[in-house]
Each structure stands twice: as structure tokens, then as C-alpha cells.
Amino acid sequence: MPSTSTRRRASLLGALALLAVVLVTGCSTDSPPEHSARLQKAAGLKTFQVETTKDLWEKTSDQSGRDGPDIELKTTVKELDNGLLQVELSGVDLANYLRILDYMAHGGPDSKNFGKHHSAESIRMYDEIADVLDNVTKRPGPKDPVPRVVVDTAFIDTKNKK
Q1: pLDDT, greater one: 104 or 1
Q2: What's the mean per-residue pLDDT of the chain?
Q3: Which residues, including other chains, have CB under 8 Å from residue 68's CB and lie 6 or more apart?
Q4: DSSP tag of 111
Q5: 147 alpha carbon, distance to own chain's centre
Q6: What are 29-53's pLDDT values in tens digits?
Q7: What one-character DSSP code corresponds to residue 88?
Q8: What gap in Å lies between CA 53 and CA 150, rounded to an integer?
Q9: Closest to 96 measured CA to CA, from 119, 68, 124
Q10: Strand partners, 150
């Protein structure tokens, strides 16, 4: 029969192993499984347009809560007659924007609470862009319309009703 100190040591090692597993999995990101394919598809586009409110664009393109160096985003922004902004991104810049959104929506260390970012605005923007990208089956030709998404203040359910 094992001694008391051997059982304690075994229990302590088991508890440390469990803690290590919890810490490692708790610090990982929860990027959607399709994220890598979406980045590749985005990078293959010539241009992509996002029509959104000024507040939502500023909130979701802000990198101040992200760890690491800023990711460069080159955009052309035009104010539309309906009050929305039309943000045009190259395919590479769309891939970079998706990286920012993924970090802010699905994970990344937050030194304030040792948790993850789960910005509702970034989740919404990521999901709406992902829906458009997931439905692109071939690279648009020169005469095809530019892929675009409209992310305004309407509720998602009401936007889908025709």
C-alpha cells in the first residue's frame, strides 16, 4: 500500500496537470474552423465593400485592445446618401480586417480579466462578412459586381425578410 506522502504527491501532480490543461485551453483562441479558408478567399479578392455606420466601423476597426503590433488597413471611405459609410478594402486588407475582427470577436488574451475578447460588434461584423465570403464560389471577373456586405443598425432577422 502506498504511503501517505506518495498519495499526496500523486494527488498534487494530478491537480497540477489539470490546472495546466485548464490554463492552456483557457488561453487559446476560438477562431471559427473556417477562419483560415476565409482569409485565403478574402486575400484572393481584388476588392470588397463594407457599408456600415460610422460608429460600427470605428468600433470594429479600432485595434487599441489588441495585443501585438497594429495590422495595417488601407481603406477608401466614402459617406453615402443614406448615412452609412462605404468602406472599400483590397483583398489583402479584407484579410487583415478579418484578423482584427477574429481577435476581438473570438479570442485573445485580455490582461485586465485574464479572459477573452467577445465584442458583440466585432462578432456581428465578422459573421456578416463571413456569410458573404462563404457564398463566393469563384473569383469575381472584371465585369462582376464587387462583393459587398451591408451591416447597419437593423436587426439581423428584419434584414433577411423581403
Answers
A1: 104
A2: 79
A3: none
A4: T
A5: 19
A6: 578 899 999 999 999 999 999 999 9
A7: E
A8: 9
A9: 68
A10: 51
Asked whether the CA dihedral 5, 8, 12, 17 is positive or negative, the reply is: positive
Q: Which three cell numbers, joined as nine digits, stand for 126?
A: 465578422
Q: Which residues contact 133 (CB under 8 A, 6 or more apart)?
A: 38, 41, 42, 147
Q: Which residues contact 42 (CB under 8 A, 6 or more apart)?
A: 48, 91, 94, 95, 98, 133
Residue type at 7 in one-letter notation: R
C-alpha cell at 149: 456586405
pLDDT tens column, 107-123: 753 434 344 567 889 99
Measured CA to CA, the distance from residue 39 to residue 6 in angstroms comes to: 51
> Which residues are paired to 109 by β-bridges?
116
| Coil, strand or helix at 79 | strand
pLDDT surpassing 70 at residue 106 = yes
Q: Which of 14-18, 28-32, 68-72, 84-88 has the lowest mean pLDDT?
A: 14-18
The cell 494530478 sits on which residue? 14
